[in-house]
Amino acid sequence: MKPALAALSGLLLAVCFPKFTLVLVALVALLPLMLAIRLPGSPRETTVRPWTAFRLGYLTGAVFFVVLLYWIPELPPENVTVPFLMYPVLGIMVAYLSLYPALSAMGAAWLSRRGVSPGLSLPLLWTLTEALRGTGTFGFPWGSLGYAFAPYPHLIQFASFTGVWGVTLWTTLVSGLIYLYLSLPWVSPKLSAFALLAALVVLPYLHGREVLQHRHPRAGVEVGVVQPNVGNNKWKMAVRDSVSQALIDQTADLAEESRDDPPTLIIWPETAIPARLPREPYYRYLVEHMVDTTGVALLAGFPDGVRLEDGGVRFTNSAALILPHRGIVARYDKRHLVPFSEDFPLPILNRYDFGQSNFTPGTKPGIMKENGIPFGVLICFESIFPGMARQLTDLGARYLINITNDQWFGDSAAPAQHFNMNVLRAIESRVGLVRAANTGISGIIDPYGLVVRRTDTFVKTSFTGVVELGDGPTFYDRHGNWVLWLAGGILVLFGAFALVRRRAA
């Protein structure tokens, strides 16, 4: 019974995200796990032992991440050197990521056996461990529960105060209050739990409606986005010229089509041109000549590599701002590399070719300025880390640009999962965000998380649109992850209460 409840929680968590997108299920997703840890109304002694709770939480995580990341073994074969290795890769990822739900359940069981309900402790622990798995070299906040609500931005406008972790905490607290309502034996506490539950459900909706009804017009910047829809074969020498010329022609056509209302900036996806742009004169001439001819600035994604004095090569995943008649005026090297894809944290394995790149991380944030307006650049999955976007807005970015190449994901739910995380970045800092993806999903998101434009995947297309500018720092921008500190402080109090209660007994 208890393993079935734990597995059910994992399944409910997974179906909150694309490709299922049953968003509201997130509000009850952790309830079965809470019931598995301790059935409502049962005496304290029948709460499962912490190690048993660890196994139950691990099962929840395993089911969740297997379903959420189902697309890893389905990556297109041409993108993977050894395709059959993707199955053990998924297994390793699930084995690691499941530790975080397991630790949450273990802590909730320990506190439950000392008088603190899982309905109170598990939401706090779940939020903290989700934030923890998004930090460090192996940080991977993909599937954090707050992102499930990206399709319903009217419910999460409070993220401008709390960030994504506040949305996670809110979501899990709903499950917790339902658990408390079921477990409390007396009428008065039940009514209190119900009242708190109703407030927790209704207030975000009322706040979101108020915010969206009174949103004010903002200044904006006209941008163009190029989605070339080019496969991984673009790296072959035989097709580099044709791929580069097609990209340049598509960009020139977009500029020509919009000459009556020209964009301030045209954006290419991550590594859009298969050339070390600053170091290959032929390709640099082609691109700069196109920019000079159209008169429109370009943000270009490209790989780069420079030979070092010791004979080695420093490779980077980069973006550069190219201005008419001025050439490259600014560049950004991606700082947070995808582990085991763009960088191998285990150097001993670099002698083997698993299809990985050996990029070197950049050292400076991606702040650039065009027409006097600063913007921030996030490359690929950097957009899933709230701290990186917040740093850019703290440095003055008025809007954000995410360039990516999601062609690696194939025709799966991963591009939608990735796109949705950008919605939280826009709401958190109240800035517009424009996204250019090689095969999609490209689009524009307004400062309230509403998707203004969204392309289909695996189509060649380009468009122009207005990305709205931020007015200044939000509460979240100024105060950061205060929600995590609050959750941690409450857990410390719970722990102190549990220890005092144990000594008194």
Short summary:
The protein is of the alpha/beta class. Helix content is 43%, strand content 15%. The protein folds into 2 domains: 2-214 and 480-504, no CATH class; 220-473, Nitrilase/N-carbamoyl-D-aminoacid amidohydrolase (4-Layer Sandwich).
Protein topology:
Elements: H1 2-14, H2 31-37, H3 50-68, H4 86-97, H5 99-112, H6 118-132, H7 159-183, H8 187-213, E1 220-227, H9 240-257, E2 265-267, H10 281-294, E3 297-307, E4 313-323, E5 327-333, E6 367-370, E7 373-379, H11 386-394, E8 399-404, H12 414-429, E9 432-437, E10 443-445, E11 451-454, E12 461-468, H13 475-479, H14 482-504
Parallel strand pairs: 1-2, 2-3, 7-8, 8-9
Antiparallel strand pairs: 1-12, 3-4, 4-5, 6-7, 9-10, 10-11
Key terms:
globular; 12 strands; 2 domains; alpha/beta; 505 residues; single chain; 43% helix; Nitrilase/N-carbamoyl-D-aminoacid amidohydrolase
Written description of the protein model:
The protein is built from 14 helices and twelve strands. It has 505 residues and is α/β, with parallel strands linked by helices. The protein has two domains: 2-214 and 480-504, no CATH class; 220-473, 4-Layer Sandwich (Nitrilase/N-carbamoyl-D-aminoacid amidohydrolase). A six-stranded mixed beta sheet has the order 5-4-3-2-1-12. Helix 3 (50-68) runs antiparallel to helix 4, helix 3 runs antiparallel to helix 5 and helix 6 crosses helix 14. The radius of gyration is 24 Å and the shape is globular. Residues 352-356 have low confidence and may be disordered.
